[in-house]
């Protein structure tokens, strides 16, 4: 296969978001995509039929622009950018064969909306500690955008955040196409923490919906959630930011209300009486909010921010308290 000349982008991950991001990148003329995914059957299917059989299987994957690799060490060779699109709980395992030398001189882009469980650190901090990547060479992809709507080419917006705008500006150009507008911003940590928090809130929305609460309650839940997110993000990274912009509020709204949200769906099953184990087995996809709830709960032991919604979700998921009873308590403190 002969590659076009141009920007080389390694994509790590084989799920719905990796597949959607590759679709967006393929809209550019001058890109070479080097794709790693773990599932050998899927690799063979993609090479032969140019579709991912397991996620967004309708998306056509342009063979001239995409090369699929079995090994991460091969996928990142010569790449200008390395996009991480594996759920946070599995990223260490996915990148276990890579060392500092493999990622030297490359820009790392996290598309992950989660933290490393147990260590409770952001993906960008983990990548810079593990691979010596400078924060200025790190970006995150955020904003309200579900992979399923990208697959349908529905107009979407992304926020590309970095500590310095040049890195974000360059990458935003690669993520902009007929149906996606990507905008840079310089709030790496704020955007990352807000994206993690909104998954917990979407879980809470799903739980309450599963319990039979209506739109009136959910509107109050989401308004209170925005304050909860704002208070925590400010405690963790104090600076001026416009929390009503789409990178923060927009992402909260789409995850809390969308039919495509994994976190909302997971919560809904819990509200309807599924155990955590059964809900996880039922869902082929990953709800990051499950892991995030524990990470944020633990981080907040140092910060003591008032996080009533996160605490309610923690009691349900990790202390096995009855969702109905926990939400009875929560509804007394919402305003
Ligand atoms: N989907 C979306 O719309 C969006 C997702 N994101 C974020 O993107 C990240 C990736 O999520 P997404 O693509 O949706 O994931 P999906 O739920 O679509 O897919 C799950 C992925 O995780 C892999 N996986 C599951 N278990 C393991 C394991 N034990 N070890 C290694 N890999 C495993 C699966 O591989 P396999 O198929 O081989 O099991 C698959 O590639 C998340 O952080 C998510 O928050 C961000 C914005 C939008
Ligand atoms: O972050 C997302 C949309 O912006 C995806 O959220 P879910 O993982 O809940 O589907």
Automatic annotation (TrEMBL):
<feature type="binding site">
    <location>
        <position position="263"/>
    </location>
    <ligand>
        <name>sn-glycerol 3-phosphate</name>
    </ligand>
</feature>
<keyword id="KW-0521">NADP</keyword>
<dbReference type="InterPro" id="IPR011128">
    <property type="entry name" value="G3P_DH_NAD-dep_N"/>
</dbReference>
<feature type="binding site">
    <location>
        <position position="16"/>
    </location>
    <ligand>
        <name>NADPH</name>
    </ligand>
</feature>
<dbReference type="GO" id="GO:0047952">
    <property type="term" value="F:glycerol-3-phosphate dehydrogenase [NAD(P)+] activity"/>
</dbReference>
<protein>
    <recommendedName>
        <fullName>Glycerol-3-phosphate dehydrogenase [NAD(P)+]</fullName>
        <ecNumber>1.1.1.94</ecNumber>
    </recommendedName>
</protein>
<keyword id="KW-0594">Phospholipid biosynthesis</keyword>
<keyword id="KW-0444">Lipid biosynthesis</keyword>
<feature type="binding site">
    <location>
        <position position="198"/>
    </location>
    <ligand>
        <name>sn-glycerol 3-phosphate</name>
    </ligand>
</feature>
<feature type="active site" description="Proton acceptor">
    <location>
        <position position="198"/>
    </location>
</feature>
<dbReference type="InterPro" id="IPR036291">
    <property type="entry name" value="NAD(P)-bd_dom_sf"/>
</dbReference>
<dbReference type="InterPro" id="IPR006109">
    <property type="entry name" value="G3P_DH_NAD-dep_C"/>
</dbReference>
<feature type="binding site">
    <location>
        <position position="262"/>
    </location>
    <ligand>
        <name>sn-glycerol 3-phosphate</name>
    </ligand>
</feature>
<keyword id="KW-0560">Oxidoreductase</keyword>
<keyword id="KW-0443">Lipid metabolism</keyword>
<feature type="binding site">
    <location>
        <position position="113"/>
    </location>
    <ligand>
        <name>NADPH</name>
    </ligand>
</feature>
<feature type="binding site">
    <location>
        <position position="262"/>
    </location>
    <ligand>
        <name>NADPH</name>
    </ligand>
</feature>
<feature type="binding site">
    <location>
        <position position="17"/>
    </location>
    <ligand>
        <name>NADPH</name>
    </ligand>
</feature>
<keyword id="KW-1208">Phospholipid metabolism</keyword>
<comment type="pathway">
    <text>Membrane lipid metabolism; glycerophospholipid metabolism.</text>
</comment>
<feature type="binding site">
    <location>
        <position position="55"/>
    </location>
    <ligand>
        <name>NADPH</name>
    </ligand>
</feature>
<dbReference type="Pfam" id="PF01210">
    <property type="entry name" value="NAD_Gly3P_dh_N"/>
</dbReference>
<comment type="similarity">
    <text>Belongs to the NAD-dependent glycerol-3-phosphate dehydrogenase family.</text>
</comment>
<feature type="binding site">
    <location>
        <position position="143"/>
    </location>
    <ligand>
        <name>sn-glycerol 3-phosphate</name>
    </ligand>
</feature>
<feature type="domain" description="Glycerol-3-phosphate dehydrogenase NAD-dependent N-terminal">
    <location>
        <begin position="8"/>
        <end position="164"/>
    </location>
</feature>
<dbReference type="InterPro" id="IPR008927">
    <property type="entry name" value="6-PGluconate_DH-like_C_sf"/>
</dbReference>
<feature type="binding site">
    <location>
        <position position="38"/>
    </location>
    <ligand>
        <name>NADPH</name>
    </ligand>
</feature>
<keyword id="KW-0547">Nucleotide-binding</keyword>
<dbReference type="Pfam" id="PF07479">
    <property type="entry name" value="NAD_Gly3P_dh_C"/>
</dbReference>
<feature type="binding site">
    <location>
        <position position="113"/>
    </location>
    <ligand>
        <name>sn-glycerol 3-phosphate</name>
    </ligand>
</feature>
<feature type="domain" description="Glycerol-3-phosphate dehydrogenase NAD-dependent C-terminal">
    <location>
        <begin position="187"/>
        <end position="326"/>
    </location>
</feature>
<feature type="binding site">
    <location>
        <position position="288"/>
    </location>
    <ligand>
        <name>NADPH</name>
    </ligand>
</feature>
<dbReference type="InterPro" id="IPR013328">
    <property type="entry name" value="6PGD_dom2"/>
</dbReference>
<feature type="binding site">
    <location>
        <position position="147"/>
    </location>
    <ligand>
        <name>NADPH</name>
    </ligand>
</feature>
<keyword id="KW-0963">Cytoplasm</keyword>
<feature type="binding site">
    <location>
        <position position="286"/>
    </location>
    <ligand>
        <name>NADPH</name>
    </ligand>
</feature>
<feature type="binding site">
    <location>
        <position position="261"/>
    </location>
    <ligand>
        <name>sn-glycerol 3-phosphate</name>
    </ligand>
</feature>
<comment type="function">
    <text>Catalyzes the reduction of the glycolytic intermediate dihydroxyacetone phosphate (DHAP) to sn-glycerol 3-phosphate (G3P), the key precursor for phospholipid synthesis.</text>
</comment>
<feature type="binding site">
    <location>
        <position position="251"/>
    </location>
    <ligand>
        <name>sn-glycerol 3-phosphate</name>
    </ligand>
</feature>
<keyword id="KW-0520">NAD</keyword>
<dbReference type="InterPro" id="IPR006168">
    <property type="entry name" value="G3P_DH_NAD-dep"/>
</dbReference>
């Amino acid at each position: 296969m002969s590659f076009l000349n141009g920007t080389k982008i390694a994509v790590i991950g084989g799920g719905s978001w990796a597949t959607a991001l590759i679709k967006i990148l393929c809209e550019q003329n001058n890109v070479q995509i080097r794709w790693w995914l773990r599932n050998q059957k899927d690799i063979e299917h993609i090479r032969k039929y140019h579709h991912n059989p397991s996620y967004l299987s309708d998306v056509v994957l342009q063979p001239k622009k995409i090369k699929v690799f079995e090994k991460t060490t091969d996928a990142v060779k010569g790449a200008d950018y390395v996009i991480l699109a594996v759920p946070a709980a599995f990223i260490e395992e996915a990148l276990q064969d890579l060392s500092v030398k493999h990622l030297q001189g490359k820009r790392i882009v996290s598309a992950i909306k989660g933290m490393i469980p147990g260590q409770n650190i952001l993906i960008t901090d983990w990548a810079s500690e593990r691979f010596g990547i400078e924060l200025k060479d790190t970006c995150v992809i955020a904003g309200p955008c579900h992979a399923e709507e990208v697959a349908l080419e529905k107009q979407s917006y992304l926020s590309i955040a970095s500590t310095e705008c040049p890195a974000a500006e360059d990458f935003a150009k690669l993520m902009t196409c007929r149906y996606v507008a990507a905008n840079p911003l310089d709030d790496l940590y704020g955007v990352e923490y807000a994206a993690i928090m909104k998954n917990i809130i979407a879980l809470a929305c799903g739980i309450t919906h599963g319990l039979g609460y209506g739109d009136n309650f959910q509107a109050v839940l989401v308004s209170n959630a925005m304050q909860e997110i704002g208070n925590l993000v400010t405690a963790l990274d104090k600076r001026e930011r416009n929390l009503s912009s789409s990178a923060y509020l927009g992402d909260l709204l789409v995850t809390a209300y969308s039919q495509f949200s994994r976190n909302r769906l997971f919560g809904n099953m819990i509200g309807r009486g599924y155990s955590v184990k059964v809900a996880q087995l039922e869902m082929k996809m990953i709800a990051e909010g499950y892991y995030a709830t524990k990470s944020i709960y633990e981080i907040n032991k140092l910060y003591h921010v008032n996080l009533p919604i996160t605490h309610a979700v923690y009691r349900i998921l990790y202390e096995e308290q009855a969702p109905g009873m926990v939400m009875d308590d929560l509804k007394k403190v919402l305003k």
